[in-house]
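Run log // design_07
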């Protein structure tokens, strides 16, 4: 560090206490770590098998707890080609094709937040970015959801809708029919 820079830094620290810090806060003690941090240290994983509207296999997802949230790698087939589709976490882990996957309940929203990235008070925990299908009607993507832990979503489901989420309509983004559903195990 040059002498001039060090002098400026010292002056800034005196003039604006708390604005300049040479150290970062210490890491929290194990008892103070967040649930996300605790789960991340164990390397937890889960899987989800997608079924389509007829109950036929339609792909899979692998979920991994990370320090930043849950990383979801999905590979789904049988979707409309070259089309934006909504991708959410739903309340239950029941994917009954006879109910058009309505058995999965609404979006996972443990805090009662508004739906959507563009809505005031949003997004809620089940919101995730829209995904673009390929020309062959498949999706292969990785999506990070920073609002959940793996422990909070095992026993729930992943859902792909027929349309894209508008990120503001309540309660579900006007995303349309439920095309593929996957219980998280």
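design_07 sequence
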């Amino acid at each position: 560090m040059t002498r001039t820079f060090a002098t400026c830094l010292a002056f800034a620290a005196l003039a604006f206490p708390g604005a300049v810090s040479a150290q970062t806060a210490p890491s929290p003690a194990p008892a103070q770590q967040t649930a996300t941090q605790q789960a991340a240290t164990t390397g937890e994983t889960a899987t989800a098998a997608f079924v389509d509207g007829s109950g036929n296999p339609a792909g899979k997802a692998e979920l991994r707890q990370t320090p930043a949230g849950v990383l979801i790698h999905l590979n789904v087939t049988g979707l409309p080609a070259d089309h934006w589709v909504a991708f959410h976490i739903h309340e239950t882990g029941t994917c009954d094709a006879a109910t058009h996957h309505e058995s999965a309940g609404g979006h996972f929203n443990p805090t009662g937040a508004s739906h959507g990235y563009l809505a005031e008070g949003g997004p809620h925990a089940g919101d995730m970015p829209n995904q673009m299908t390929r020309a062959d009607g498949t999706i292969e993507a990785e999506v990070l959801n920073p609002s959940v832990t793996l422990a909070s979503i095992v026993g729930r489901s992943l859902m792909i809708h027929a349309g894209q989420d508008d990120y503001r309509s309540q309660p579900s983004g006007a995303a349309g029919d439920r095309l593929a559903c996957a219980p998280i195990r």
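The longest helix spans residues 3-15.
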